[in-house]
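Forgive a beginner's question, but would it be possible to get any protein sequence you like and the tokens describing how it folds?
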Amino acid sequence: MKNNTTTVQKIAKYIRQEITYSNFKSGQHIKESDIAKKFNVSRVPVREAFRILQSEGYLEVIPHRGSFVQKLTRDNIIEIGIVYKLLAPVVLDKAIPRYKDTTYCKADVILHKISICDDFNQAGYLLWDFAKLIYSPSRLKFMISLFDEIYSHNIRALNEIFEIKQHHTYDLRPHRKFLDLCKKNKKEEAIEVWCDHIEKIKNMMLNSH
């Protein structure tokens, strides 16, 4: 049973990443047989992985037709934005006072990697590394687990935008300003800067839909 569970998780992780990276496009038909062949397994764990991904909003199952990559709608983006903007101030309020010199050093390293990265897929995950770094000191594990899901969909949406525009740079000024304000013990201003950044990202994604 454990091996089967592990296989299901591996399949779900693979498909989730392929969708996030935009290697599997919105509306694309994902066949159980193709995935089963790739992992050299029966369709049983594939079907279970598909159910998980359907519940997470990555796949849409259409009766008698199959499973397709779920399109991100304006409603999806608005909902994600609302949840994120509500939770982020709460998490940051707990996290910022616990930042250490190592937090800022690690943040600078991540931002430098993003600034020289020419693969936006990879940059997307580096952005999540940055977010986890600034949120983790809060020790609010459940809220951070929700951010995991939010960021996966955000990265996916941003990948689609940047692919369409054939533009692979990312504005890191809000990140640097946020860190600078944190270093100056201006927590409320830092949170406000970050929330403004979240709102701008949401609007950018909405404008593309």
